[in-house]
Specification:
heterodimer; A: Immunoglobulin-like; 3 domains; 5-stranded antiparallel sheet; B: two-stranded antiparallel ribbon; 32% helix; globular
Amino acid sequence: MTARSDRRTTSRGQLTRRELLAGTAGAIGAAAVAPVAGQQAIETTRRPGRGPSEIDQRSSFVTPRRDPSATSSRTPLQDLRGTITPADLHFERHHGGVPEIDPARYELVIHGLVERPRVFSLADLKRFPSTSRICFLECSGNLRRGGPETLPQMVCGLTSQTEWTGVMLSTLFDEVGASPNATWFLAEGQDAAVLTRSIPMEKAFDDAMIVYAQNGDALMPGNGYPARLLLPGFEGNSSVKWLRRIELADRPFMTREETSKYTDPLGDGNTMRQFSFVMDARSIITDPAYPRVIEPGWHEIRGLAWSGRGRITRVDISTDGGASWHAADLQAPVLPKAHVRFRYLWNWTGGPGEIMSRATDETGYVQPTWDALREARGPRTRYHQNPITSWTVGDDGRVLFGAERVQS
Amino acid sequence: MIGTGAGVRGRAVTAATIAIAVLGLSVAGGRLSAAAGQQRASSGPLPETFGFGRPATPAAIAELDIDVMPDGTGLPPGSGTAADGAQTWGRACRGCHGPEGEGGTAAPVVGRDPSGRPLTVGNLWPYATTLYDYINRAMPRPTPGMLTPDQVYSLVAWILAKNEIIAEDAVMNAETLPAVVMPARDRFVPDDRRGGPEVR
């Protein structure tokens, strides 16, 4: 019996995987069915695949998942291979849940120190000259310390990268006639937290945007649908989602999120750093990382590096726990305020090792060790923790989070 | 909440000058635009205004404009005391923040330990007005935005009194609340990180 004749005997003219395997086994006269390399490459040719569909789905063999907690979900950095984060895997962090907003009823009000206070519909926003920009968005609370069995996703999965499309905020501020007296603006969301942040006007005339598209598509609900503020390089909390109102003023508003939250205790035990918007340079090796088990031989150490102050100029790799450092290749294009992929070929000879990455940006800032951060800010710093992290490689090839690199 | 544009003259000349100095922007076609092509709205001349959208009326603005600033701008009429607030606290707040504000599933709000253990309204919040703003806009978590001004003032009074920042019988309203000096008022300093080799 051949596979072809077997196919004719099946109902509805379709072969199940088991039938196909059995038929093929019969065709080659084997007593036991054991999949061999190449066999699948023949199987899939023996029946038509599924037809076109309205929307594609990932292969059933591919199941990347965010890691949700009560207030956030983290991007599976270890499962991604490029610099753009698929929209459905972009991290989320919100303070009052994800609102469901009807785009037909969406409005953005801009008022305060302006000549012409104005209301814009979503369609209005889309009529203005549009800009697309690739940049990262990172929560300033993006560090979780864990034990050896900690995924890259858990270490710093509160960073993602997107091609955002929208209108420059400066275009809108020109439209409403921003006053020369305005030095700050308030951005307010229409979520249940009605989240507010005060932003310096300089950022509006630098590179701030109001975006309505994420990787070419509409924003995902968890990322602010239908429109959000985007402040490239700034801590994610300030890029207010579900934006409903902007008010220009001559002073900051001192909202909860910029006083009792998102402020950084300093080493003197008393003062707190406020309006610490910019995300400093950082990197993480995403492969090999836990839970990989590697074999001796060549491995390409891969990861992401980024800086809120501009371009990454250099990433150094250590494979000996920081004793020596070697420059990694940076994958073009190296965009400002954007994730860049780095690569470093490593021939693991089998002994215990510890791999680490260290980013440098165009200001000359070098990603610090945890000890250096603690030395600069004291032990109780809350946000903006960007220490060098490491992965240990055991004799057995198991890759584990090098927790001691971030602990005191 | 501030004025709605009355008396504002001219275009953003001062802001533009500052932005040019600080950020290296250029003025093209009479309009502000950033030097990098990626950040420009258009390569061609822009109209003075596009005319998109519609005017925001004072009534439409007032409907959304709920923010309260440290000088009290935006505070509504109304008032409350700690005694008034105790009742609302028991009904709307204690389930998460604890009977005495010591914390539970939500953060503690009472405590004056200057070392910040734990961080609370008493040792961390620099402005009492922010309490009004935040409670009014976002609390209680399951049903935010439903408290009356009197209820918010009284909850603010309860929290401030528990922290021994105001007297038990002090009345909080649009005049008295901005005058409250919080213990953490002077703890905040500007961000001094500037990039470069120094870790800050």
